[in-house]
From TrEMBL:
Family label: Belongs to the WD repeat DDB2/WDR76 family.
GO molecular function, a single term: damaged DNA binding
WD repeat start-end pairs: 237-279
Pfam family, one: WD40
Positions of region (Disordered): 1-29
Taxonomy, superkingdom: Eukaryota
Protein name in UniProt: DNA damage-binding protein 2
Amino acid sequence: MAPRKRPETQKTPEVVVRPKSKRNRSPWELEPEAKKLCLKGPGPSRRFDSGCLWAGLASLRVPPPCSIVRALHQHKLGAAAWPSLQQGLQQSFLNSLASYRIFQKAAPFDRRATSLAWHPTHPSTLAVGSKGGDILLWNFGIKDKPTFIKGIGAGGSITGLKFNPLNTNQFFTSSMEGTTRLQDFKGNTLRVFASSGTCNFWFCSLDVSVRSRVVVTGDNVGNVILLNMDGRELWNLRMHKKKVTHVALNPCCDWLLATASVDQTVKIWDLRQVRGKSSFLYSLLHRHPVNAAHFSPDGAQLLTTDQKSEIRVYSASQWDCPPSVIPHPHRHFQHLTPIKATWHPRYNLIVVGRYPDPNFKSCTSHELRTIDVFDGISGKMMYQLYDPESSGIMSLNEFNPMGDTLASVMGYHILIWSQEEAGKRK
């Protein structure tokens, strides 16, 4: 049954999915049943942004498994180019998205989810933080009750969340409570790395490098702090004029730092040469405030998401050259967790939630709130995921390190997408 069409002017409540049953549900009640995925097809009731989705899918030529094996053998013998083999594998993955379903769902928080992080070595475990400061550690591959850490409530929003690479039973958080800290999943604070000491200043982002043993965090007035793993502050500088929404260390050159801000810039820094606010390598100007800046897994590209309608891809070899710009509706709304595009961990693909905007150039009537997958090189739309029973705005979407399971944050809800066959095995 097709989802009911919404009038173009209808407002979206923050939580849009309700259980069909009217009985009270425990916040821990998970929903393992697979949801039937509504795949969009051509026709008067399923129109797409520039028709690019079906054009992209129609152009795919997925090599059969034997061809991939043959290509791997030829590559080993030096007779096949790695880029062509990688492209074949990427196309096979895109083809598999047709079988992706929501097979697990949880709604443990009393306020919307604001951050998520996959466990670096366990493919079915993730941590999710909420606006109230609550944190959930969830291994959805087992039936055991997830670990839940209660936050302080109002004013405790978790703005950044990272597992400790040196001890994955621990995690780093930045929060509106005014701290960046290291905690364990018993709720104990192991070390406070930064503390504002006042409700007027709080921390909005963080990242960690295991090789350099450093923690970097940004606050709401433009300051960025670099600390070592022992908590010793290396420097504290005002690098932006306004809130630092995101900080990211390059996974291959962890002395390279990207900072994003609502001052409409993303700045690139060499941590070995930082002397002050003007010592950046590049300042990448945007037309709107910026929500995020993510380096690609190979460190060769930088993906930025603004607060309105642009996703940009910059090349690490030519930071000052015009970026690849992907028009995409994801406008900022005060009571919505900011939308941030992310990279697939294995392929040159971009994943981002859609917030339909009637003012967007190619917006169609009754456009659905999909999860969009773009090619990171061409910027072409390759696929859209949608579930009619979970039709809210997917603010955060990240694949696990294996690249086969997708976690989404939709209002109060955490959704786990996987291939239908894999979902049945869980």
